[in-house]
Write a structure and sequence with these properties.
Keywords: Membrane, Transmembrane, Transmembrane helix. By secondary structure, this protein is of the alpha+beta class. It has two helices and five strands; from the N terminus they run αβββββα.
Length: 130
């Protein structure tokens, strides 16, 4: 149980690190959500898609993948937020890297939830050992 708690805390820290790195090293650039990239397929039909964003930076067009995304219960590609303009943190030195969308906070909530579950499992294991 302690291993699972530490694993959840590690994943939460990794998510926060990636989001903060994107925010610190990137520059705010306006982009448009043009599609999705299938990120993961889980149990019971859950499928996660990351946003695919088209942005223009200094006269060049880039297609980047966002850290944020949407989860569905089927194999059908979602249509949520398609065509939406958003501001992303884009690092021109690493244009193929993942970007973070300004104003989307799903990753922070997920990291907070994982951190709380990890801490709770460690505390419960510690209490049960006493």
């Amino acid at each position: 149980m302690i291993f699972i708690g530490l694993f959840f805390i590690f994943i939460a820290g990794l998510l926060i690190f990636i989001k903060l790195k994107c925010m610190i090293t990137g520059k705010p650039v306006e982009g448009e959500i043009v599609g999705y990239v299938r990120g993961a397929k889980g149990a019971y039909g859950f499928v996660g898609y990351n946003y695919r964003i088209r942005l223009e930076y200094k006269g060049e067009v880039y297609y980047v993948t966002a850290l944020e995304g949407v989860t569905t219960m089927s194999e059908n590609i979602p249509k949520k937020n398609l065509g939406m303009y958003c501001c992303v943190y884009f690092n021109p030195k690493a244009p193929k890297k993942t970007v973070a969308i300004k104003g989307f906070h799903r990753v922070e909530w997920l990291a907070t939830l994982l951190l709380l579950i990890g801490l709770l499992s460690i505390i419960l294991e510690w209490i049960l050992m006493i």
